[in-house]
Amino acid sequence: MAVNETVKYGIIGVGMMGREHLINLHHLRTQGVVVVCIADPHLPSQQLALELAKSFDWPLKVFSGHQELLDSGLCDVVVVSSPNMTHYQILKDILNHPKPHHVLVEKPLCTTVADCRKVVNAARKRPDMLVQVGLEYRYMPPVAKLIEIVKGGTLGQIKMVAIREHRFPFLVKVNNWNRFNSNTGGTLVEKCCHFFDLMRLFAGANPVCMMASGAMDVNHKDEIYDGKVPDIIDNAYVIVEFDNGARGMLDLCMFAEGSKNEQEISVVGHTGKGEAFVPESIVRFGSRMEGRDGVQTLKTENRLIKYEGLHHGSSYLEHLNFLSAIRVKGAKTPAADLNDGLISVAMGVAAQLSIEKGRFVNIEEVLDEHNC
Q1: Same domain, 109 and 182
Q2: Report field, pTM of the whole predicted structure over 0.70
Q3: pLDDT at 334 (0 to 100)
Q4: Segments forming the whole domain that contains residue 267
């Protein structure tokens, strides 16, 4: 695809996150980007997306289903931001479609490891298509800076990665789909695939086994939908052991609105320690040799970001990166590929299973297709 050629996007699923993608893409219009069509069976979501697009002076063709959008031939790139449980069928239909569409699919890739594997296998047969998974936390300026510090060797060989997310409860989504494990894959898949992905990046390794403890202790207990009470956990501790000897720990609490930072990341190597804080956008790092007095504090920013949005500019940078990969197809692969999506889901599934069984879970247990 020529650098100056207009890239036409379609968005499948225009709920809260789909409309967020629409806004991000509008801020990329100077890069030769245009959204030409959307698909969503939910009329109120359609209407909100149409109003947004009208304010951007972008006329949209509206479809109620993704197959009609694909068959229209209107777009070159598809953003999949529909509910988690719909990802597999939509991705399957995109990958089987005669017309190639490059794909940015929101996390999690799918809700089960088995479905993720099927998508990975189907994508192998479509070398004419790029598929990137929406693990955009990698691009948050403080996180990206910490990744750079770690990869530069400043902290030595990484031994421990601790990620704390203390935040607000799950937001209300269309038809309350995100209140049930069967739709989301479970909180540790739906929410925490981001953090498992970051742990792998920081550790420079793959997971071997996981141990988790968690429950639904505060949120959603008095909610009932179609006679059913939500079953998504709202807090957990998760320990991960990696194949290079590094360890990771996740501390999740979704009833902690009284926090200064939503995410706090600590990475410790054999010669130093680094930390990232979101949304303060601060990075701290120091060495064992220099001690506390030698700790440096950086305020991070990325001047490329034209829209902060819901994720501190990371979605904008994600789109910028994906657009670059599309335009130099063959020379550059998506930053977060299907294997990253698969492993991040497998880690979430293993953690959920650990809570259910009350024991360590080997990652091979969930990666083994026969056990999926």
Answers
A1: no
A2: yes
A3: 81
A4: 135-304+340-364
